[in-house]
Amino acid sequence: MEAARPGLRPQPGPRRRLSGEPPPLPRELGRSGRALLVVAAAVGVVTIVAVLVGTAETALDRFDSAFLRRVAGLRTDPLTDLARWLDGLASRWPLRGMRWAAILILIVFRRWRHLLVFIASIIAVEVLASRIAMAAQRPRPFGVEILTDWQGFSLPSRPMASLAVTLFAMSYVLVPSGRGRYLAKCASAVILGAVWLARTYLAVDHLSDLVLGVLLGVTAPIVAFRWFVPNDVFPVSYRRGKTAHLDVTGRRGEAIRRAVRDQLGTEVVDIRPVGLAGSGGSTPLRLTLAATETQPERYAFAKLYAANHVRADRWYKLGRQIRYGALEDETPFGSVRRFVEAEDYALRLMADHDLPTPDPYGVVEITPEREYMIVMEFFRGAVELGEAEVDDDLIDQGIRLIRRLWEAGLAHRDIKPANLMVEKGELRLIDVFFVQVRPSPWRQAVDLANMMLVLALRTDPERVHRIALRNFSPEDIAEAFAATRGVASPAQLRAMIKRDGRDLMGTFRGLAPPRRPIRIQRWSARRVLLTLEIAVVGLLMLGIVLDNWAVFA
Questions:
Q1: Is 110 helix (H, G, I), strand (E, B) or coil?
Q2: C-alpha span between 128 and 383 (Å, rounded)
Q3: Amino acid 56: pLDDT
Q4: Which residues contact 78 (CB under 8 A, 6 or more apart)?
Q5: Model pLDDT for residues 183-239, shown as the tens digit of each residue
Q6: Which of 199, 268, 391, 433 has its CA 20 to 30 A from that of 57?
Q7: What does the alpha-carbon distance between residue 49 and residue 183 come to, in Å, rounded to a whole number?
Q8: What is the rounded CA–CA span in Å between residue 380 and residue 361?
Q9: Which of 225, 82, 62 is nearest to 142 (CA)?
Q10: Who has greater pLDDT, 4 or 434?
């Protein structure tokens, strides 16, 4: 019988999810979303067909006109003034003001996914309403006086569609889920109802125009946000954290507990984010596991990855290819599943070489092809190297760690204080996602320089340099600091060096033999083509934005 992995004793054991059984955190539209989508499609098809195949005297037109004539009999001067004021809520300037306010708020709080879906929903509704109007070419109501200017073809009511999509999209991007969002949608419905009555009173739209316009404007944001930005996965929050950090409370937290229990065979009693400040590509978590007779307190470390991390990784690697050229020629991952598979492989590879990294416990599926979590050993009581007392032994451990990576033909590629932990005087290396097999000599040299810089932050460069000479030649150290400039070091390390105030890089270069800086930007045919491709795509995107600029400007 296979022995249990350390720290994850199966109780009672993993459970296989049956075919057709929903995953721990399914991606779903919801009953109301599906119902609204069906109703909107049905009403839209029926209305458009009725207009296209009929004449001006169809039953639909006769009903709409009779209804408007009956409403026109209620007109008074005060009601007319009120109706015109309410109709102004769906005019250009109020809509632009609300849209730009929402866009600025989303930019300030860096909620890029909400921002993209917000803009896409508005553009989609505006374009679709315009295309339907041009196809149907339904004239404004006849047989009744229209108390406003002519506003083009009437089907659907484009002002109502614009107001509806704006109000409901703002409810989804600005108001957290719960009672607050429910009240925001109720308020939006009241405003839409008031403008509906006003436009009916003014006889500027047919009743069927208003119905189709509102359905179009309401359905688009509800479906878009529930499908592309589900609240359980991307909750509305006003904390200015990194967008990579996912919320692990509520439904997702329950899904994580269920997934770990079913797939790794152990109970999770608490989930807590840890080390968020030093992590930008995943959500690091500490899992508190159910106690056993021999282990009253058990913990595991986990990294939660989602599909947006894959997209961010693609852009990151594309930017590096353009910036560095062939020196950093990499292939991005095709899916989040490949993401966690690569890190799990890297952990096992590092363990094979007896490097001080966490023991891997396994990969957990949260949502197929969208969210996965890798679980590993948790170094309880460990502190970041940047917060520990660094002595000669710890410096030697750090330098020897880089030597062992070189001998194993590996590069960590993300050496920074947040990834170096000290547990009972022993140095541990974490976050092996960027580990590269048979890396370029430049990347290995950068690992050495970054390790020496991290150690020097807590001591002094001369001391680190003296101990480094036990494992590396002066030429190796000279090469390392000739290769390391700017973005070659992780952002956290660069920020800490800047705050330190000492010229650590200059000091190390002064201690090493003279060496000309290694040029990291190398042009190649691939780099030229990628640069041209990005430029062309950028121009096309700019053209699309300018074509639809009237929606926001």
A1: coil
A2: 56
A3: 44
A4: none
A5: 999 999 999 999 999 988 888 888 888 888 998 899 889 888 888 887 766 778 776
A6: 199
A7: 36
A8: 16
A9: 62
A10: 434
Domain boundaries in the chain?
31-228, 250-377, 384-511, 523-553
Tokens of 404: 């062992």
Helical axes 158-174 vs 207-228, angle rounded to 10°:
30
Residue 204 half-sphere exposure, CB side, CA atoms within 13 Å?
A: 23
Percent of the chain at pLDDT > 90 equals 39
Calculate the CA 52 to chain-centre distance: 43
Concatenate the DSSP letters of all residues of 34-47 into one string.
HHHHHHHHHHHHHH
| Chain-centroid distance, C-alpha 459 | 38
- Residue 444 contacts residue 409 (beta carbons within 8 Å): no
Distance, CA of 5 to CA of 16 (rounded, Å)? 18
Whether the CB-CB separation of 287 and 271 falls below 8 Å is answered with yes
- pLDDT band per the 50, 70, 90 thresholds, residue 4: very low
What was the pLDDT predicted at 170?
95
Q: What is the mean pLDDT of the chain?
A: 84
- Note whether 250-377 and 384-511 share their fold: no
- CATH classification (class only), 250-377: alpha beta
User: What is d(CA 112, CA 312) in angstroms, rounded to the nearest whole number?
Assistant: 12
> Cα(357)–Cα(343) distance, rounded to whole angstroms?
12
Which token pair is 1? 């019988």
Burial (0-12, 13-18, 19+ Cβ within 10 Å), 419: buried
The CATH code that applies to domain 384-511 is 1.10.510
Q: Can you give the pLDDT at residue 427?
A: 95
pLDDT tens-digit map of 364-386? 998 888 889 999 999 988 898 88
The span from the CA of 341 to the CA of 409, in Å, is: 20
CA atoms within 13 A on the CB side of 264: 29
> Which residue is listed with tokens 């979303």?
33
- What's the confidence (pLDDT) of residue 528? 82
Q: Are 174 and 236 in contact (CB under 8 A)?
A: yes
Residue 542: per-residue pLDDT: 78
On whether the CB atoms of residues 355 and 401 are closer than 8 A, the answer is yes
Q: How confident is the model at residue 31 (pLDDT cuts 50, 70, 90)?
A: low
> How many Å separate Cα 511 from the centre of its chain?
44
- Higher pLDDT pick, 140 / 185: 185
